[in-house]
């Protein structure tokens, strides 16, 4: 009887977690750490990962220290990569390496990219160890949480919503003097300045000068709090910015590119121009395969740039969105399928609309229904391929440890030209009876 009751209770808990996720997470976040750990240990893999992904940063950090090795490995391998990277930043380098050793090489590369920020960016200067608090907490609950964690390194406490987005702040002295039942929302005030994780040193110094602040919260692209830049880091950033400005005055800045020596520019650009030439010959060879078809229907040659141009623009849009997501740590390389699915969906509907407009234009110009049909099909196919390429190319380069910004556009241009030319001329050859 006892066993049946326990089984029924477990089933009810599982149903509650699955069907009322947001309510369940609010309850879980309020539980003591030991009870949360016990819950994670007993959950099936998918539910355990979902719960961990939605824990507060300090609780998620504790999980990676206290859970069994099997559960930790599962979180490291399957946890949401951007979220996981934010938690990994809270560990010392040695512990982070030990956690990384639990997962495969491709996952390590993805997380390393998300953890490492450009030198002198806000992400590289921030301290990711902070205490996030909800606006709905009372002063008593907040103080209890602070005492339990035994960690406070700022005169300000930052409030977040249930999605982790930064809302307002509370001065620590106001919290200390507040009545026990006062909520943090009633004690809060607006945050004078916030920077993104990819903000430059110049932007950080500008905010410090403008607001005369002792700490600067850092958020990711979604507005989620991921760290704080402390006063000493701000001062160091200002000092280094002053020294760089002095160097720039005398033209000695190593970052100066506009006045680089001609030989230096040639050495950097010529290899990529040569590669681009080779890829152009590859695209031209595809056209050469259909020389006879073009000779019979000269209108095809006129319309080739239309197909290539539209597919190129589609690919460039997908490439820009993907590279921005990778650069801003909005996505990891393992999330390529979600991005690709979105871009392919957009390309399909855009392709249908552009194909219709193109068909109308061809009918008005040439009067050939067959040619309008051929270019319409080709337009949709080439735009779908371009969207997929725009996502996959930078993801592959990033997963291989290469800089996506350096060569993605050249590879993308090759793919869109080859696919565009081949689909248009290939379909035209198969359906030549309609032309």
Task: Give structural notes.
- The chain has 21 helices and 6 strands.
- It has about 425 residues and is mainly alpha-helical.
- It folds into 3 domains: about 1-115, MgtE N-terminal fold, CATH 1.25.60.10; about 135-250, Roll (CBS-domain), CATH 3.10.580.10; about 260-435, Tetracycline Repressor, domain 2.
- α16 packs parallel to α21 and α18 packs antiparallel against α19.
- The chain is elongated, with a radius of gyration of 28 Å.
- The model is unreliable at about 1-10 and about 245-255 (pLDDT under 50).
What is the secondary structure topology, with strand pairs?
Blueprint: H1 2-19, H2 21-29, H3 33-42, H4 45-53, H5 57-66, H6 69-78, H7 81-88, H8 93-100, H9 105-115, H10 122-125, E1 133-134, H11 139-149, E2 156-160, E3 166-171, H12 172-177, H13 184-187, E4 195-196, H14 201-211, E5 216-219, E6 225-229, H15 231-249, H16 262-289, H17 291-296, H18 299-327, H19 336-365, H20 369-399, H21 404-430
Parallel strand pairs: 1-2, 4-5
Antiparallel strand pairs: 2-3, 5-6
Helix pairs in contact: 1-2, 3-4, 3-5, 4-6, 7-9, 14-15, 16-21, 18-19, 18-20, 18-21, 19-20, 20-21
């Amino acid at each position: 009887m006892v066993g049946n009751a326990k089984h029924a209770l477990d089933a009810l808990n599982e149903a509650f977690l699955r069907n009322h996720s947001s309510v369940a997470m609010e309850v879980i976040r309020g539980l003591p750490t030991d009870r949360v750990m016990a819950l994670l240990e007993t959950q099936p893999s998918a539910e355990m990962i979902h719960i961990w992904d939605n824990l507060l940063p300090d609780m998620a950090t504790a999980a990676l220290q206290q859970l069994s090795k099997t559960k930790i490995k599962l979180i490291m391998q399957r946890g949401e990569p951007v979220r996981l990277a934010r938690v990994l930043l809270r560990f010392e380098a040695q512990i982070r390496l030990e956690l990384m050793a639990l997962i495969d090489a491709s996952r390590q590369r993805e997380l390393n990219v998300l953890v490492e920020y450009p030198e002198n960016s806000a992400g590289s200067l921030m301290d990711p160890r902070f205490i996030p608090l909800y606006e709905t907490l009372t002063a008593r609950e907040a103080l209890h949480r602070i005492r339990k964690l035994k960690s406070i390194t700022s005169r300000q406490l930052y409030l977040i919503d249930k999605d982790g987005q930064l809302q307002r702040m509370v001065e620590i002295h106001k919290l200390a003097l507040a009545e026990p039942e006062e909520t943090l929302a009633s004690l809060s005030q607006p945050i004078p300045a916030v920077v993104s994780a990819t903000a430059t040193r110049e932007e950080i110094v500008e905010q410090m000068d403008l607001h005369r602040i002792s700490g600067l919260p850092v958020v990711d692209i979604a507005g989620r709090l991921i760290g704080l830049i402390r006063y000493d880091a701000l001062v160091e950033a200002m000092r280094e910015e002053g020294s760089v400005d002095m160097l720039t005055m005398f033209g000695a800045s190593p970052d100066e590119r506009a006045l680089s020596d001609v030989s230096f520019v040639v050495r950097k650009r010529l290899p990529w121009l040569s590669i681009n030439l080779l890829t152009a010959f590859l695209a031209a060879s595809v056209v050469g395969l259909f020389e006879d078809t073009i000779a019979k229907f000269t209108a095809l040659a006129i319309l080739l740039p239309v197909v290539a141009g539209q597919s190129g623009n589609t690919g460039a849009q997908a490439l820009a969105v993907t590279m921005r997501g990778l650069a801003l740590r909005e996505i990891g390389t393992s999330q390529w399928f979600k991005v690709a699915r979105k871009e392919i969906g957009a390309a399909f509907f855009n392709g249908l609309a552009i194909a219709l407009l193109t068909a109308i234009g061809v009918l008005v110009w040439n009067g050939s229904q067959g040619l309008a049909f051929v270019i319409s099909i080709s337009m949709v196919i080439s735009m779908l391929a371009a969207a997929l390429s725009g996502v996959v190319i930078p993801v592959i380069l990033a997963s291989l440890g290469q800089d996506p910004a350096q060569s993605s556009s050249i590879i993308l241009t090759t793919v869109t030209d080859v696919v565009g030319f081949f689909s248009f001329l290939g379909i035209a050859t198969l359906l030549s009876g309609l032309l």
